[in-house]
Write a structure and sequence with these properties.
CATH topology: Ribosomal Protein S7
Largest sheet: 2 strands, antiparallel
Number of strands: 2
Helix content: 55-70%
Order of helices and strands: HHHEEHHH
Number of domains: 1
Length: 155
């Protein structure tokens, strides 16, 4: 057990939208420390979303992120030699982390040619309540629902 809890690091808002959630998303999107490329991919994807949907791209992205964020998840808990999947509520910080992670992971595995097209496609799909990232959230919720009987093992 560590002595003290580490200080929470606060991140600066992004240059275009002045939103810290966008910066967090771009930081997860970034590979090999190439932040300017990650920003370009994100901004181009938002422009593509605006073009395809005809609404504010940032609002569509936030709606997509809210559709992907899970409310409950299962955690393994050992009780008397048996391992149970115990459903637990997700903290707000972890909720946004999981939503961002799933949105990026499933946009990377899409079939479009460039990353901005993949990300835009996944954002549009998630805002409509479909796509692989939303399916992952539904699977997580279904798993928690199936293991509701073990909820008394919460720690």
């Amino acid at each position: 057990m560590r002595k003290a809890k580490p200080k929470k690091r606060y991140i600066l808002p992004d240059p275009k939208f002045q939103d810290t959630l966008v910066t967090k998303f771009v930081n997860y999107l970034m590979l090999d420390g190439k932040k300017s490329i990650a920003y370009n991919i994100f901004y181009d994807a938002i422009d593509l979303v605006e073009e395809r949907v005809g609404e504010n791209g940032l609002e569509v992205w936030k709606k997509a992120l809210n559709n992907v964020m899970p409310a409950v998840e299962v955690k393994s808990r050992r009780v008397g030699g048996a391992t149970f999947q115990v459903p637990m509520e997700v903290r707000p910080s972890r909720k946004s982390y999981l939503g961002i992670k799933w949105l990026i992971r499933y946009s990377r595995s899409r079939g479009e040619k460039t990353m901005k097209e993949r990300l835009a496609g996944e954002i549009i799909a998630a805002s409509k309540g479909e796509g692989a990232a939303v399916k992952k959230k539904d699977d997580t919720h279904r798993m928690a629902e199936a293991n509701k009987a073990f909820s008394h093992f919460r720690f």
